[in-house]
Amino acid sequence: MKAYRALIVLDLKLALRQRSVIFFNYLFPLIFFFIFGQAMHAERGAAMTIVIAMVLIIGILGNGLFGAGIRAVQEREANILRRYKVTPITPAPLLVASVVTGWILYMPNVILIFTLSHSLYGMPWPQSMGSILIFVTVAIVGFRAIGLILASVVNSMQESQLLVQLIYLPMLFLSGATFPLAMFPHWLLVVTQFVPATYMVIGIKGMLLRNEGIAANIQPTLALAVTGFVGLFISYKLFRWEKEEKIRGSAKLWLAAVLTPFLLLGFWQMHARTGITKTKILNRQLARSDTFLIRGARIFVGDGKVIENGSVLVRGGKIAEVYEGAGPDPRTLKAETVEAAGKTILPGLIDVHLHLGAPGGFYPDMSKYDAEKSMKRDLAAYLYSGVTTVRSVGDGLESVLKVRSTVRSGEVLGSDLYTCGPLFTASGGHGTEYFKELPAPARANLEKQFTRIPNSAEEARRQVDELKTQGADCIKAILEAGAGGRVYNRLDTALFDAIARQAHADSLPLVVHTGDARDMADAVQAQADSIEHGSFRERIPDSPFEQMARKGMFYDPTLSVGEAFKDFVAGKTDLLKRSLVQQAVPPELLQGTEEAMGSAETEPMRKALAQYPIDMSIAIDNLKRAREHGVLLVTGSDAGNVLVIHGPTVQHELQLWVQAGIPPAVALQAATVNAARLLRADKRIGSIRPGNDADLLVVDGNPLEDISATERISLVVFRGERIDRSELFNQN
């Protein structure tokens, strides 16, 4: 051990005498730190993570490839190593001393970078600082080992500089250290998974943004550790004391051997894609970490309060402050300014009733319809339209939960999704008619995915519990038995009561689809959280509305679907020609729906809908009287039904309400804070309050005077990220 200690001390003394070592270990990274910190406005929060990752990666690569690789070649060419040859030591102490010296020289720079980030730019100390230091240590060892192999296989300084550059530059440019991985096309993202430095970037960003530890980055940590061990072993075997000792060209293949862990990781990632997924998630979190001030706008808070001239400060994905009047100078807040004079800031809109697994129209070739792919695209369409949260109330559970997980992680950008999953109904009840023409095996499989048909109270309770366990956010039951030429079996009230009681016991909101006054009375008796549709054919008595108001229940009239059904039967396509629909909906879906409207294929569907009594004046009257009785109103469109295509659904529902005589402020409150309360998420979304998620919609004009202003979208902010709406439909 004396030899090891002596060589480490000697290496440190020699290194500290060299100005180049001081410059490249300390001054050079600090130059990058301050240049990029200022250029990227690191004081706003998000860019600081990028700057730190960039500086650390540049430093670790330089410390390993240049510090170990080129310096060892210099010492061999200067005959320094020849002097050690006559002493009773092996190459091992020299190699270990090189690694330890590199670590000792570089770690103070790591502490310095974080200290400056905290003191100058206000970045909080990372919670996972210990893991960061361990990860950086392993990375230094791994890249010092690669540098030592480079020194072993080259025969001259010129060759070493060339080989170092050939490895250093691709790692620098393809790892995300200098160019953000978010700008890379998908094929290049796959290539980056073979680059060792990529795993350093992902690991460091994960620890900074998500407070991850070593366990969450075990693959890159082990790969770097194995690289360090294998690299030191190979360097030992190939070690040369004198420049006259030439090495065969084939020995350079050992460099490939030391990179084998990353080649294996790259091939694994081509299959598993976890690295690419994590890269996308980290990029999303970076985008949500910025600080900006939207100022000079009218602010509809959500609960009825309106600030005629104010500003909203967004920091780290949250609403940090809401100012009335001019507000402070953005420079004192270290925030970017977004001017919004003449505009109105609203909470992100919420649609509490849709069916994400149905397209709302007809594609030219429905056999190519991919429900899961379309769900992701539809959630992007909602976000494009400023509808930042939606609730699915009748979809296949497995697929909708998978999509929800993908979107909530940040891998794919789209509106936040709540789901009831499958709906509870009777055998032959509403919801089963969509499958009755299918062969028995296919019908049974689809009914299993989309419905729950309990035969006993015990089975009903068990099915509710299972949905709770699987991750459903609510429970939907159908009481409607239809009317006219569309009559269904009605859910037994004893089974319905069992469903309701278990939903309440499991703290799951109960959503009830009703069609007439009897359904409403049963739903109110069961203390449903929300009643969907009310009735399009029968005037609801005052009593249910009075009880709903007293019990704090919500009413969702879904006027959009009633109007759409009437238009479909009449062959009208006006709903497809709205500007925002044209922007948000796939062109092939619009084209296919237009073509299908008058075709023989849709004639049976039109005839069936024509047999169902829909009277919009009755539905409107029910809505107005619900408001008069003080019932909490929420907005749902029933999107997924024909002509109610996913995207700008809430805006049209609001327009129908205002046309019916509902004040715009009341309608907007239903689409924001009331809907958030129904979802039991009002502590997080639905209003513009400090501490809430920064889900915001900025529109041109004043929707309190002209409700159509909600379609004139200037900016959508989702969890603090200013959405590039033009790129939403180009996600991989």
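Next protein, fold it too.
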Amino acid sequence: MSSLTLATNQADILASLRRLRGKGTVGDVVADSGLPSDAVRVGLKSLLESHEGHLAVTESGDLLYDFDPKMVERGTEPFFVRFGRAIGRTLRGAFKAWIVVMLVGYFAVFVALVIAALFANRGNDSRGGWGRGRGRGGGGLPNLWFWYWIWGPRWRLGRPYYGQRWERTLDKDDKVPFYKKVFAFVFGPDRPKATRKQVDRSTIRLIRARNGVLTTAELVEHTALPFGEAESEMGRLLGAYDGEVVVSPKGELVYAFPELTKSVRPEKGARPPNPAWLRLEYPLELTGNASTANALVAGMNAFTLIAAATSPWFIFPRLGLGGPAAFVGLVLVPVAFSVLFFGIPLARMVGVKFQNKRRYARNVRRVLLGLVYREALKGKPVGVGQAHEYVTSRLEGQAVTKEAVQGALDELAKELDADVVSDEAGGLRYAFPALPRELRASESVRRTLALEKRELGDVVYSTADTAVEAGERELRLFDKELAGDVDLDRYLPATDRVDFEDDYEIVAFDEELQRRGRGAR
């Protein structure tokens, strides 16, 4: 099918979906648009990649394509949001340049003025001596700051600074310049923004490790996305990586990606990426700097602020300075700058605290997922007290409230249509039967697709099976695997522990490749 024909078909399919208010089966779209069924299937899969939507199953077992009624494209933002962000980047860049000039420049000026004022009454010889010292760098201070600021022979202009944890991973020659730490003091460290390709790389590893077959529950296990968002993401992956959909006899959607398993170097037992509970989020840092760097930057600005504020009584009389120009240049401007320099981080503190609360809630959810998945595979419900104890023991040093844990359990219960009952003591217990059903379905499809690569074993699929017989066969196979034929670590690795992952880790590989490429040229 040519690209022109595909584009024409997509336009017709989009028009049909708008008339259908975003929802329809292949048959609905065929009936509305008059296009061939194969063309509609291809077009709908492509639209799942480009537009907000996901797949569902009707009561009759047909696939239902469920898009946003407005047919919103993925990743789109209003023009004014993008325009405002561009203006913000420009203003921030200009302000950063002004910060360096003001902080370093005014610091050096006031060091010189304070020394001059201290020696002002010692006669011409003393002043001359100070002048000769100033020519050598004022006791070395200006030269020290100058070399400390620019020293970094391997540092590239525009390279991000993600904070001290990231800095400790660099080679010793990749010293972070002082000006980057000044910027981080005011605006916070750079925050990596992963591209779609970088995010997908981890998901593709997961798909390949699971022999090209995945369910929404398995995607959630590794990303901790809300199930609604995970369903939409699975729809996008389906369109982006030429996936196919299988509906199990019990109505679960299983996504197969045969193209992603093909390789000239097949990897048996490929290691999947870490699950969500091994990828907890560190709290955001206000500056990202070490305490010594913060003290140095704050000390420089505090010195400038104090020297400027007291200069009309200390510096001006001793050096014979005065007039509106001196007052504006040596009092108003540096005082306003220094107050703003301290004020921006103080204002940012509110936003950092808010974002850390959200990170804390996501971490609670990620840890809780490990417990929920583990107990669901055992067929056991999860109690609020049990969940609170589990999460608290793994998030040591954090005040985990029972309300936060129960709130996360309630959200998971809504997303998974869990069974919630009260125990004898009046506490709530949550059962998640949908999780093992999804894993049974994925394992059944996984084994079926891999039959040609395995030795002859138990029958896992037969065209003569009725829906009931197929479902019973799936249950027997899954029970057999859980009894010991399959290592449970493939489903739930390391539920006994948690670990953290830095934001920059997902982009570090590509940034290192880019840096090496520039170095090679």
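About the second fold: Residues 324-378 form the longest helix (55 residues).
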